[in-house]
């Protein structure tokens, strides 16, 4: 979720690189689509625009209706129990049922990148590549449910945290929590921008709409119903969007399967399993672990976990959604597999084989456009746009929730709600502007997905399961070091050279073959534990004065307590004969009895 994972983002790029044929043979690249002159030459597909408009109206109507209904329910709850309005917006009053929760969790994960990526992987690499996201996302949800959902939902005597950043701020303080907010914020915003950009490009290619106009309208629709009902509106519109995804893709399969250009006899000769070159095994494992573990520390995931009625329900939600992700990988995998045995050059209007990286990444839009009747392609387009919209609204809400609860903070509930509304609009605005103007948005999203894996996952793991062994010094050291090393490892999409070249580095392709992301993640865990232990020993044992404890991690009396305890352990307790040693006559500290 999201993300805010690298493989999903890689496949969303497909939409922006889409190429098509227009006017019997004039091949136009995606760069031409961006120009104003080309937009003027395109014919807007009125039928397709009407179908998408109807879909958007349906989503908007459902979101507004749910928001209005939830507002009336909240007013009754506030009178009876004094319910919290901001929490109602962010977490649906912690009253989300299992059915709706499973569907909104599944819809958030099965985004445009998931569908496009699964289809592309099935087209190019068979099961081994196709299973990366399907099994990776499912394993991510399973592990999240097994190890993270319950402790997060059980915190505060069963009331649960409000956002993913709460345990960090409680353990390390609000400043460090604000620091960890930055990679989470960037991951969500860049993910939102990437999927909005993909949606705009698909509309441009298949409908002839202006890219900028498509992005703005899509973002405006998502913001409108999110403002009306918060997580409740997002969740219920996700139910509609997930139904559209499943129905739309399944509906397209028979038309693609029976297209005259599909060579069914060739299916028996295709290597459906696929192969992973020995030199790529390291990077393949790295990507797999990135999707599995890096998919956990995202607010879009924990927002739904924390909205459940109980810790057990939060776990069940994750388990069932994992199964849902597997099921929804089947339709795009079938479409990609059929496209693999299609004679694109002689049997379709496309008129040439799909060989370039841009074409391969655009395989799903090409399937919908050239292997189905026009009216069927509109249904498929609705499925893809529904998948993208289901993630766009989630990222907007999750970003604003973290900002309002963990960064802005105010005691006025009424004021907090208004800030929440403003932050939703601002978050969507930032994603929209970046989708329209930033050419390196996908490179930034790659880097942020890596930072979430390398930096945030170790922090989340340790704060929940090793909180007694970590402190602010270890947290900040691991954060800065992990981020720095990841940047120094290079990123081709941002033209960042690899200063750190790990083993098996490919000088020709400039690729890291070593699973360096996983190595950096593990190094961050070890570094945080070591630095935390050293800092504790230095201050508690009295090697440094408490006045140098700038983060106030250790009590000023800790060194005295350790010294007394050391004397008791050594048997040198002749001068300590009281049961309690008093510090400043006001802080009694019970001493452990000597074995003597």
Automatic annotation (TrEMBL):
It is a multi-pass membrane protein. It is found in: Membrane. The keyword tRNA-binding does not apply. The chain crosses the membrane at residues 46-68, 96-114, 126-149, 179-207, 213-232, 239-257, 277-296, 316-335, 375-404, 416-438, 444-466, 473-494, 514-535. Gene3D superfamilies: Sodium/glucose cotransporter. Its main location: membrane. InterPro entries: Choline_transporter, Na/Glc_symporter_sf, Na/solute_symporter. The keyword Ion transport applies. Keywords: Glycoprotein, Ion transport, Membrane, Neurotransmitter biosynthesis, Sodium, Sodium transport, Symport, Transmembrane, Transmembrane helix, Transport. PANTHER family: HIGH-AFFINITY CHOLINE TRANSPORTER 1. Belongs to the sodium:solute symporter (SSF) (TC 2.A.21) family. This is High-affinity choline transporter 1.
């Amino acid at each position: 979720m999201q993300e805010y994972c690298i493989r999903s983002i890689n496949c969303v790029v497909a939409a922006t690189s889409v190429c098509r044929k227009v006017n019997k043979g004039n091949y136009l690249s995606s760069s031409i689509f961006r120009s104003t002159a080309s937009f003027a030459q395109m014919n807007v597909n009125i039928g397709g625009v009407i179908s998408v408009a109807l879909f958007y109206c349906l989503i908007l109507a459902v979101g507004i209706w749910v928001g209005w209904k939830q507002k009336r329910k909240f007013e009754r709850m506030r009178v009876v129990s004094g319910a919290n309005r901001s929490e109602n917006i962010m977490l649906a009053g912690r009253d989300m049922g299992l059915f709706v929760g499973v569907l909104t969790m599944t819809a958030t994960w099965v985004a445009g990148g998931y569908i496009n990526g699964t289809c592309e992987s099935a087209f190019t690499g068979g099961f081994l590549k196709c299973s990366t996201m399907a099994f990776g996302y499912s394993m991510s949800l399973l592990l999240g449910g097994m190890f993270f959902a319950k402790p997060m939902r059980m915190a505060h005597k069963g009331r649960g945290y409000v956002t993913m950043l709460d345990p960090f701020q409680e353990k390390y303080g609000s400043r460090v929590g604000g620091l960890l907010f930055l990679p989470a914020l960037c991951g969500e915003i860049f993910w939102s921008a990437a999927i909005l950009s993909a949606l705009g490009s698909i509309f441009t290619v298949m409908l002839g709409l202006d890219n900028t106009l498509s992005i703005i309208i899509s973002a405006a629709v998502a913001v409108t119903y999110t403002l009306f009902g918060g997580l409740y509106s997002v969740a219920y519109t996700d139910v509609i969007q997930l139904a559209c995804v499943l129905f739309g893709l399944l509906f397209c399969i028979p038309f693609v399967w029976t297209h005259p250009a599909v060579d069914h006899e060739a299916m028996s000769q295709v290597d459906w399993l696929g192969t992973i070159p020995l030199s790529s095994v390291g990077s393949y494992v790295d990507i797999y672990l990135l999707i599995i573990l890096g998919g956990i520390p995202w607010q879009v995931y924990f927002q739904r976990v924390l909205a459940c009625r109980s810790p057990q329900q939060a776990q069940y939600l994750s388990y069932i959604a994992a199964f849902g992700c597997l099921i929804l990988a089947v339709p795009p995998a079938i479409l990609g597999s059929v496209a693999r045995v299609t004679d694109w050059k002689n049997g379709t209007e496309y008129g040439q084989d799909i060989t370039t990286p841009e074409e391969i990444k655009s395989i799903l839009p090409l399937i919908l456009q050239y292997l189905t009747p026009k009216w069927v392609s509109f249904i498929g387009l609705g499925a893809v746009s529904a998948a993208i919209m289901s993630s766009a609204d989630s990222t907007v809400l999750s970003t604003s929730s973290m900002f309002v609860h963990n960064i802005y903070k105010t005691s006025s509930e009424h004021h907090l709600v208004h800030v929440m509304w403003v932050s939703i609009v601002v978050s969507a605005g930032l994603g929209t502007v970046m989708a329209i103007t930033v050419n390196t948005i996908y490179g930034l999203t790659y880097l942020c997905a890596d930072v979430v894996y390398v930096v945030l996952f170790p922090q989340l793991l340790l704060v929940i399961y090793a909180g007694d062994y970590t402190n602010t010094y270890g947290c900040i050291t691991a954060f800065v070091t992990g981020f720095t090393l990841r940047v120094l490892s290079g990123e081709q999409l941002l033209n960042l050279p690899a200063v750190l070249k790990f083993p098996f580095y490919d000088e020709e392709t400039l690729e890291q073959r070593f699973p360096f992301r996983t190595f950096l993640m593990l190094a961050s865990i070890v570094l945080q534990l070591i630095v935390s232990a050293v800092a504790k020993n230095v201050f508690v044992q009295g090697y440094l004065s408490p006045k140098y404890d700038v983060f106030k991690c250790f009590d000023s009396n800790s060194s005295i307590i350790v010294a007394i305890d050391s004397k008791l352990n050594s048997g040198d307790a002749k001068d300590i004969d009281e049961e309690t040693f008093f510090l400043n006559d006001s802080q009694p500290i019970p001493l452990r009895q000597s074995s003597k």
